[in-house]
């Protein structure tokens, strides 16, 4: 074994130191001759050359393995929590419910309530900036006759063509689709009445199925038009006189939702009294609606499977909101005011309660202070490493006590800044701990963040120290044969990581033992 060790040292040493005595020159010449013979034999032999080690005593060896190799880059970071936030009262009133300091509020939970109306937390990154209802614009609907309200729709009701929105002294006030307001009585006269409002009425009743093929939608009120009106009146349960007055109908452009009702059953009204407010115009749509629908669906509020998370507010969206409202004890109307909902990507922790139950507050009064329960690690990524980290990547954080915990990259800055630590241009990175409870007691603590720079999967590998540098170039490993002898086997090293090196070529198989220093 002594000869093998000497030979291994010879092929790995760098030559070039000039000897100070002549006998060293002769010794060196002899060594080079022997090494050249051995190396020539290795190169020319079709199989690895074996020789009896003749070793006495134990040798250091390691087994060839098949494994994954991961190259990680470590960055210095700081662990803490996100900045504090707060929730204010959306309206004035008495605080009727609050959490306790230290409580965690999760998606679907009530943050607090004013006068019995809760503010709910839902999942999503975009703050609510408008009310969620069928359409953004509104129109006011007025009473067109005097009398007593005997029926009226509730706030949140979605009304369609043909629906009765109120009754005054028992007489129905019906919604029909059209752009022209009802401003006169429409009926069959000796000289036929004409106009766009006539065509509008004919089209609406045709769409409701009362035409029967006898009426041409042509802006002319004929006897056939009057007959169609009578068929409609029969279904309404009113006098069948073929006459439509402004007190009978209200024309709106499309389906609408009652956002506010200003009268109640039993109220006395006069012509022109405000009755209710309806939405007006195209259906509300956009990324914020999609976020709401996703949040509702994730909580199981999907209008019994009818909800489509398409970013368009429709009847199913309103029904899903009603399911949420029923679960949290809110007024059930199928609408959410921007002040009634708080969107957050994570659950939040209550740090302070500023307005206790029973406190009378005005709109805008601070009720609770919040912080995210998430633990955030911040670190600077040198510009040279740009592209190494992306949102969603998994990383490993080493805590001050040496414990390693998993995290996920949540933010990568798009613009570089100048580092205060002489790192040059850097990108700010944030990582969220997958389990924040593992670092619950740490704040502004120094940590190390390990990021995977590169990796290979399922490769044959040996310890880096097992490599022998050959004099003619390249590398070999010294394999221990079954009979205890050893042989140098030429290999081509590949990926390096974790003290191991991938063997990309060579007749080395997992399970074989190799000599290591």
Blueprint of the fold:
Blueprint (H helix, E strand, L loop, with lengths): L1 H11 L9 H23 L4 E3 L9 E3 L1 E17 L3 E4 L4 E5 L6 E2 L4 E5 L2 E7 L13 E6 L4 E6 L5 E2 L4 E5 L2 E7 L15 E2 L1 H12 L12 E2 L1 H14 L12 E4 L3 E6 L6 E2 L4 E7 L6 H12 L16 H14 L12 E4 L3 E6 L6 E2 L4 E6 L3 E8 L11 E5 L5 E9 L4 E2 L6 E9 L11 E19 L3 E3 L5 E6 L5 E12 L2 E6 L7 E3 L2
Parallel strand pairs: 8-20, 13-16
Antiparallel strand pairs: 1-32, 2-34, 3-24, 3-29, 4-23, 5-7, 5-22, 6-21, 7-8, 9-19, 10-12, 10-18, 11-17, 12-13, 14-15, 17-19, 21-23, 24-28, 25-26, 25-29, 26-28, 27-28, 29-33, 30-31, 31-32, 31-34, 32-33
Structure report:
- This protein is α+β, with helices and mostly antiparallel strands and 517 residues long.
- The protein folds into four domains: 2-67 and 456-515, Beta Barrel (conserved putative lor/sdh protein from methanococcus maripaludis s2 fold), CATH 2.40.420; 75-82 and 373-451, Elongation Factor Tu (Ef-tu), domain 3 (Beta Barrel); 85-133 and 284-371, no CATH class; 137-280, Muramoyl-pentapeptide Carboxypeptidase, domain 1 (Orthogonal Bundle), CATH 1.10.101.
- The protein has six helices and 34 strands.
- It has helices at 2-12, 22-44, 196-207, 223-236, 287-298, 315-328; strands at residues 49-51, 61-63, 65-81, 85-88, 93-97, 104-105, 110-114, 117-123, 137-142, 147-152, 158-159, 164-168, 171-177, 193-194, 220-221, 249-252, 256-261, 268-269, 274-280, 341-344, 348-353, 360-361, 366-371, 375-382, 394-398, 404-412, 417-418, 425-433, 445-463, 467-469, 475-480, 486-497, 500-505, 513-515.
- Strands 3-24-28-26-25-29 form a six-stranded antiparallel beta barrel.
- β32 and β33 (500-505) form a beta hairpin.
- It starts with a helix and ends with a strand.
């Amino acid at each position: 074994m002594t000869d093998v060790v000497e030979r291994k040292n010879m092929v790995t040493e760098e030559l070039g130191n000039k000897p100070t005595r002549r006998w060293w020159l002769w010794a060196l010449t002899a060594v080079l001759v022997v090494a050249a013979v051995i190396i020539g034999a290795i190169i020319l032999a079709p199989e690895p050359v074996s020789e009896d080690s003749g070793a006495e005593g134990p040798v250091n060896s390691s087994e060839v393995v098949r494994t994954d190799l991961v190259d990680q880059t470590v960055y210095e970071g700081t662990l803490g929590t996100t900045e504090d936030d707060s929730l204010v009262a959306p309206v004035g009133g008495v605080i009727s419910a609050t959490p306790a300091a230290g409580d965690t509020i999760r998606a679907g939970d009530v943050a607090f309530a004013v006068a019995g109306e809760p503010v709910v937390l839902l999942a999503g990154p975009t703050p609510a900036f408008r009310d969620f209802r069928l359409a953004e614009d509104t129109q006011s609907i007025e009473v067109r006759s005097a009398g007593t309200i005997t029926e009226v729709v509730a706030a949140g009701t979605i009304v369609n063509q043909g629906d009765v929105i109120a009754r005054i002294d028992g007489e129905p006030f019906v919604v029909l689709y059209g752009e022209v307001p009802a401003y006169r009585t429409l009926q069959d006269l000796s000289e036929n009445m004409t106009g766009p409002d006539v065509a509008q009425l004919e089209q609406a009743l045709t769409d409701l199925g009362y035409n029967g093929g006898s009426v041409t939608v042509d802006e002319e009120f004929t006897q056939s038009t009057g007959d169609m009106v009578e068929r409609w009146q029969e279904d309404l349960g009113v006098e069948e006189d073929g006459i439509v007055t402004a007190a009978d109908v209200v024309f709106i452009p499309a389906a609408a939702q009652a956002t506010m009702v200003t009268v109640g059953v039993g109220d006395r009204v006069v012509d022109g009294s405000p009755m209710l407010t309806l939405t007006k115009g195209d259906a509300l749509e956009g990324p914020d609606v999609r976020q709401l629908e996703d949040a509702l669906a994730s909580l199981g509020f999907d209008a019994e499977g009818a909800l489509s998370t398409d970013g368009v507010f429709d009847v199913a969206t309103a029904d899903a909101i009603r399911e949420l409202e029923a679960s949290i004890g809110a007024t059930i109307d199928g609408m959410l005011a921007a002040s009634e909902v708080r969107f957050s990507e994570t659950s939040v922790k209550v740090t302070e309660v500023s307005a206790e139950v029973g406190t009378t507050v005005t709109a805008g009064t601070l009720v609770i202070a919040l912080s995210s329960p998430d633990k955030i690690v911040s670190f600077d990524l040198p510009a040279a490493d740009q592209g190494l980290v992306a949102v969603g990547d998994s990383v490993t954080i080493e805590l001050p006590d040496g414990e390693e915990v998993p995290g996920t990259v949540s933010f990568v800055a798009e613009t570089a800044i100048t580092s205060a630590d002489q790192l040059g241009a850097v990108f700010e990175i944030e990582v969220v701990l997958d389990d924040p409870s593992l670092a619950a007691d740490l704040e502004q603590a120094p940590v190390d963040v390990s990021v995977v720079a590169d990796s290979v999967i399922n490769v044959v590998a040996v310890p880096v120290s097992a490599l022998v540098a050959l004099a003619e170039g390249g590398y070999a490993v010294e394999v221990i044969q079954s009979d205890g002898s050893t042989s140098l086997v030429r290999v081509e090293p590949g990926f390096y990581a974790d003290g191991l090196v991938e063997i990309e070529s060579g007749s080395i198989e997992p399970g074989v033992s190799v000599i290591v220093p």
